Amino acid sequence: MAISKERINELLDQLSKKDFELVSELVERLSQRSLDRKIPLDDEPTTQDDLNAINAAQDAYLKGELVNLKDVENELRS
């Protein structure tokens, strides 16, 4: 989906001050990420602690113990 800078500006004009701060932080991160593309891939071996964390996360997922994205968004905005 192509979107123009004008449309982005229109959308920004509609945001509250609190929302604008959140969007500004996101845009800042995205703009910096494009500069960091030359960072090498993490080649460290997977540790037992990593595997334990992965397994715990998978178990939590299977049990439905998840955080809803809408809840996170609401918390950030309040």
Shape: flat
Number of strands: 0
Number of helices: 4
Mean pLDDT comes to 85
The Cα radius of gyration reads 18 Å
Structural class: mainly alpha
Report on the structure:
By secondary structure, the chain is mostly helical. It is built from 4 helices and no strands.
Please give the structural blueprint.
Layout: H1 5-13, H2 17-33, H3 48-63, H4 69-77
Task: Supply the key terms.
single chain, 78 residues, mainly alpha, 4 helices, 65% helix
Structure, briefly:
The protein has about 80 residues and is mainly alpha-helical.
